[in-house]
Fold:
Amino acid sequence: MDESTVYRLRAGRVPLLISLPHTGSEIPWAEHGRYRSRALASEDSDWHLEAVYGPIAEALGASLLVPRYSRYLIDLNRPSDDRPMYAGANNTELCPTRFFDGTPLYREGRAPDELERARRVEHFWQPYHGALQRELARLRALHGVALLWDGHSIESELPWLFEGRLPDLSLGSNAGQACGAAGLQAVAAVLAGQRSYSHVVDGRFKGGHITRHYGQPQDGIHALQMEMVQAIYMLEDKAHPPPRPLQEAKAAQLRPLLQACLQAFLDATTP
Structure:
């Protein structure tokens, strides 16, 4: 695993990169004074996804890219110009100012200004995206194609962001623009062929910045986003302080389906 101050990259041998941009939970010590004390637990992180995906990446020979720092510092799945991802809905920003329940993250008057946002882009956002770009370029040069799987997780119910309960698995392709039809259809078929988890394709989560920006199938780069509810692999209980624990029995049940999705993605898209 190659080390960086802001990310870890394990380079694989097949043309697949698994990116987990919201798994980081650390907030630099120098920034602690800006935040409300509750924020220091990074409760809205995509908890335990490295533990879920790590064995799959190793088994498949896929590359794995994970960040060190919390999305509360900077959201790696937002564009650097901070354009909203989902028009007409509540959105979290490039440098989020609210928890997922809509309450403020920062102490009064301490939210980052334009200069601070630019500093965070330079020191945290750009290194992660630079590594992502270089790894996709390496894979495409070796294999003639590169596949990007952007892995995420979220609580099942978050009224400030969406109504009702989310499906267990939400596959996003930016409405078919980020991935060739064969790859998208192959993964969708795997999801349709099982009954353990509810699922949707290009529903509420069509893919964030990483999927939309890097998914260029006409140039040999195919991208999909998978958003999972945390209840299917870890404890999801608001009464339990974060980080809530991984439930390995649930994760062990989930991994074969995720691996089958990734294998189908590879088989359908690789020359």
In short: The chain has one domain: 2-269. Helices lie at 49-60, 114-143, 181-192, 209-214, 248-269.
